[in-house]
Write a structure and sequence with these properties.
By secondary structure, the protein is of the alpha/beta class. Among the domains are: 190-275 and 687-744; 411-460, no CATH class. Strand 15, helix 26 (875-888) and strand 16 (894-898) form a beta-alpha-beta unit. It is elongated.
Length: 927
């Protein structure tokens, strides 16, 4: 990767300024307050951006904001153009304030490639390098006076180191996996303790709670079925009452239809007989006979007044006056109020249950001991281990071997001398035989002398090689055992001394109690934090539910306190009671149409009664007048009628038929009652149709069981019974619905129990899997640490003599802490961070370069951003460091920020190539 340019639209003191960088080495020179460090930070921000995570900024992020956010502008924006190793030109844009307008865009194709490097919600160009924004800052981006920061970030770099060593730069490491497994096990499994809030204990508690909930659901369901049976009986009574009303209405309608049908039949027979023509009266000339006939006919056709109807129209008027008006408002609880009330009740119950589950009081504070948990646990383990003794079998083996070595072996002749003596005697004998007597005698004499010497020099032999080897092995084993005993004694003595120094008794239980107490206190604090963290959403949800209920009540015209849940629930109860009251009022008001109809019927009957009385009085008067006209003595209409009939009987017999015709005609007019025959027929058909329609709605047996003559009289009472039964059934149904809303669902409770049992099994299986995986990964991590350390050391060792003036030539790098030890010609090892500050910075600069080299293998070439790295180096080492960086710039881009004149002079002299540049920032006065 090469950074071509960085534009600071708004960054610290920079506004709409651009910094061009060379592909090789760029030296940026500037005095104090020339925005040199701001440009260094702007390059880092333009490349890596800021995380878009939830929550407050971390301490380092807050420090970055305080140093580099513009003081007099709301926007905070940087842009960089980079060229990747595959040739792509990419624009990285970061809105550091809003964290929204951020992207990585291919400048050739125009594609948004942010997904390739997305990290914590924002594009992070360090991902192309195999790093992230945190590890890039710890290795390749050196801030002023922060060269040793790599030590503080060692834990974070471990993941990248292990990826580079073990997996060729992929995103998996044994250490990260172990940490995540431990964290995962801690969060997703936990311990089987009563006070634990982790999944294992939660799953066990959930299984128990689900079983109890299922029992409660069964009991509530049984209660619901009992209440439902009662409600069904009330509804059956209401239906029976309605059916009784329908049967009486049908019977009354059938009775009225039969009466009208009978009148129609008689009217049709009489009308057919007369053909619609009034019969002729032969005695028309006889005025008296005519008047008699008229009077008798009028009297006979006059209706007999019936009794006064009960109840009367006045009674119905009283009932109508007593009826309430139709209510204004809800007669049933509105759905919005019901849902809001249930929401408040549910959340309030959850909050109360949560408050009841508040963690108890804090545990006792742990003793103040100036030692870490790991050290204390190590001390406890040392105190627990007994001091061993040298095994008796080793001592016995050593004594036996010593005895075998000190015992002399039997004496042996020197075989080589005897062989030489025998050869000399043989040569002498051969020489004498060949005639060389002096020579042969001399050689033979020498052989005899050598043989005598060999016999005289025989001596005891020492122990053989096998005996010596066995003795050495026995002595070594005994010495090793004695050393182990001594080392164990020393360890125990050091542990006892350390306990005394810490003010603790030298007992394992007492020492181990300190980290146990710390963990207990930390667990309590964490449990209280989680309790509070879970309570806040419940409080917020309750507040929202209270507002929802207050709004729903207000919308229904029932204003209430919008902050107090209890007051709102009381207001909801008052609203419900008001709905019930209005429902009763509406039921009572619904009787008005029936009462009006009954009152109108009573008024009609009363009018007919008056009319009938008036008609009968008129007929009686006419009859008495006719009797007087005929000179018949009569004091009452009945006497006049009898006398006139007798008077008429004396008339000619032929007048009898005419009189009968006249009577039938009169009866016809009575049946028509002022209507035409068609009108009477229509009225009868309408009554029959009504009766048929009403009869179709009920069973024939129900209608047959009703007395038709009294059906109309019983209807008011029956309708009142219908209203009362309906109100009772509706009230019981409402109570049942409220109860049904509170009972748990049995199937859901069974499903919850099944899920809880499955979840507990899953957590236990996960626990076994995690324990096995951890054992495998621990072994893998040990292998990774053995692989990475030599690679880092080899890289640093190649550059170390040059930047330290040849004083240090060898190096050791710890892969776990990133601490560096160096050694010179004396061979004595020293920790680099304990040397002079300048030397330490130079050594750790090499470590950063080595880390950048190893961590980014297989990824884009990592640039180095270095701010004032030679400020603590002398002139000679400054030149050597710059020469080294120039050499490294052939492989990677290097940007050096400095205020030193020596570095500026070096840059003017050496940075002359096309891939090299020197940039001088304007001084504060010029700016």
């Amino acid at each position: 990767m090469r950074i071509r340019s960085v534009t600071a639209q708004a960054f610290g003191p920079l506004a709409d300024e651009t910094l061009q960088l060379a592909d090789g080495m760029t030296v940026v020179v500037g005095d104090n307050e020339s925005a040199k460090s701001s440009w260094h930070a702007a390059i880092y921000a333009a490349l890596c951006g800021r995380r878009r995570g939830k929550g407050a900024p971390r301490k380092d992020e807050q420090r970055f904001i305080e140093l580099h956010k513009p003081w007099d502008r709301d926007d905070w924006l940087v842009t960089a153009e980079v060229v990747l190793d595959d040739g792509r030109r990419v624009e990285l844009r970061h809105d550091l304030a809003g964290k929204v307008d951020c992207h990585a865009k291919d400048l050739v194709l125009g594609d948004d490639i942010s997904a390739e490097v997305m990290n914590d919600g924002a594009p992070d160009g360090a991902r192309w390098l195999g790093l992230d924004r945190s590890s890039f800052a710890a290795t390749a981006c050196v801030e002023q006076a922060h060269m040793l920061r790599v030590l503080t970030d060692a834990d974070g770099l471990q993941e990248h180191l292990q990826r580079a060593a073990a997996t060729a730069g992929t995103d998996a490491t044994a250490a990260a996996a172990l940490d995540r497994l431990e964290e995962f096990k801690r969060e997703r499994v936990g311990l089987d303790r009563v006070n634990s809030s982790k999944p294992l204990r939660r799953a066990m508690n959930a299984e128990q709670a689900a079983g109890s909930a299922l029992d409660e659901a069964h009991a509530a369901h049984e209660e619901y079925l009992s209440r439902l049976e009662q409600v069904e009986k009330l509804h059956e009574r209401a239906v029976a009452a309605q059916q009784a009303v329908a049967a009486h209405e049908a019977a009354a309608a059938a009775y009225d239809a039969a009466q009208l049908t009978e009148r129609l039949r008689e009217a049709e027979e009489l009308s057919e007989r007369f053909g619609g023509v009034r019969p002729v009266n032969v005695a028309d000339d006889d005025q008296v006979a005519n008047e008699v006939s008229k009077a008798l006919a009028s009297w006979r056709s006059a209706p007999v007044p019936a009794g006064k109807p009960t109840p009367s129209s006045a009674d119905f008027d009283e009932q109508l006056a007593a009826l309430p008006a139709a209510p204004d408002g809800d007669t049933a609880v509105h759905e919005s109020v019901r849902r809001a009330e249930e929401h408040v009740t549910r959340v309030q119950a959850q909050l109360e249950q949560h408050d009841r589950n508040r963690p108890g009081t804090a545990v006792s504070p742990p003793p103040q001991v100036a030692a870490g948990d790991d050290e204390l646990l190590d001390l406890a383990r040392v105190l627990e281990m007994p001091v061993p003794a040298v095994p008796a079998e080793l001592l016995e083996r050593e004594r036996a071997a010593q005895t075998a070595v000190s015992t002399p072996a039997p004496a042996k002749l020197p075989v080589p001398l005897l062989i030489a003596a025998a050869v000399a005697v043989l040569i002498g004998v051969i020489a004498v035989a060949l005639g060389q007597l002096p020579v042969g005698a001399a050689v033979a004499a020498v052989g005899v002398i050598v043989g005598a010497v060999a016999v005289l020099r025989r001596r005891p032999t020492g122990p053989d090689e096998q005996t010596l080897t066995a003795a050495a092995s026995a002595h070594a084993a005994a010495a090793a055992a004695r050393e182990q005993v001594t080392e164990a004694q020393h360890r125990r003595e050091r542990a006892v001394a350390r306990c005394a120094e810490l003010g603790l008794p030298a007992e394992p239980e007492a020492v181990r109690a300190v980290p146990t107490a710390r963990n207990r206190e930390q667990a309590h604090v964490e449990e209280l934090r989680r309790w509070t963290e879970h309570r806040d959403p419940l409080v917020a949800e309750l507040s929202a539910a209270v507002g929802e209920l207050a709004g729903a009540l207000s919308a229904r015209g029932h204003a209430a306190d919008g902050t107090d849940p209890a007051a709102l629930l009381e207001a909801a109860d008052a609203y419900r009671l008001a709905c019930d009251s209005r429902a009763q009022q509406a039921a009572a008001a619904s009787r008005r149409p029936d009462l009006v109809q009954q009152r109108d019927a009573a008024l009609a009957a009363e009018r007919r009664l008056v009319e009938d009385a008036q008609a009968r009085d008129t007929a009686a008067g006419n009859l008495l007048a006719a009797a007087k006209l005929c000179a018949v003595a009569a004091d009452t209409p009945e006497q006049a009628e009898a006398a006139l009939l007798e008077w008429q009987g004396l008339r000619a017999a032929r007048l009898s038929q005419l009189d009968a015709d006249q009577e039938d005609w009169t009866r016809l007019q009575s049946r028509l009652d002022g209507r035409t025959l068609d009108e009477l027929r229509d009225l009868a058909e309408a009554a029959s149709a009504k009766a048929a329609a009403l009869a179709a709605q009920v069973s024939p047996d129900a209608v047959a069981a009703v007395d038709p003559a009294t059906a109309a009289d019983r209807l008011p009472v029956l309708r009142e019974e219908v209203t009362e039964a309906g109100n009772r059934a509706a009230a019981a149904s409402g109570e049942l619905r409220l109860y049904a809303a509170t009972i748990p669902n049995v199937s859901e409770a069974e499903e919850t129990l099944e899920q809880a049992v499955g979840e507990l099994g899953r957590v236990r299986e996960l626990q076994r899997t995690l324990e096995l995986t951890t054992s495998f990964l621990t072994a893998a991590q040990d292998r990774v640490h053995r692989d990475i350390a030599p690679r880092l050391a080899d890289t640093v060792r190649a550059w170390l003599p040059k930047v330290t003036g040849g004083r240090y030539t060898d190096v050791i790098v710890s892969p776990t802490t990133l601490q560096v030890q160096v050694a010179g010609a004396s061979g004595k090892w020293r920790y680099a961070d304990a040397l002079s500050y300048g030397t330490a910075e130079q050594v750790y600069l090499l470590l950063r370069v080595a880390l950048a080299d190893h961590l980014t293998k297989g990824h884009d070439t990592c640039p180095l951003l270095l701010d004032d790295i030679t400020v603590h180096a002398d002139a000679a080492r400054t030149g050597e460091i710059l020469d080294l960086l120039l050499e490294l710039s052939k492989e990677r881009q290097i940007v050096v920020f400095t205020q030193e004149k020596q570095v500026a002079a070096w840059a003017r002299e050496h940075l002359t190539g096309p891939d090299q540049a020197m940039v001088e920032l304007a001084s504060p006065t010029a700016a």
